[in-house]
Amino acid sequence: MVDMTSIGIVANSLNAAVNITKAMIDLRDWSTVQSKVIELQRTILEAQSGVFAANDERSALIQRVGDLEKELTALKAWDAEKQRYELREVSPDVLAYVLKAGMENGEPFQMLCANCYQQGEKSFLQGTQELRMRRRVHVCPRCKAEYEMKYVERPEPPPINRGPLGGPLATSRRG
User: What predicted TM-score, i.e. pTM, was given to this entire model?
Assistant: First the structure.
């Protein structure tokens, strides 16, 4: 909301300018007219200053609204994205978010860091070569959390139609 003080300053300055102008009409003494002209200029400068302050505040508010709209768009996108995942125990005592069945959209199996997910971030757990007590260490690249997991069951990929030689079925092109 625009600062009411700035608007008040502008309104008061413009009222004063009108009053000074009316007083100047009745004056006949040149020195008095000059002092009123100086007073009028000062009043006009105050009004301009109030207008500039209100305009600066308006610009800041427009920028803030733009930032909030971007943030809202990002939150809505994240909300839609997180609906694709579910929390699952991927290894004994290890929880991660994985894609729900049917939500893969052609993406490979993936696990998201539960900590980052709760903070509104999508961070894929990355397997490492390190083993601890025969458990593969997975690391979150964002928060650096480490997860020690036994073999993680991956869902069966959808069947691929194979041709007689083992490759994918060829589609004929007639043209």
Answer: 0.53
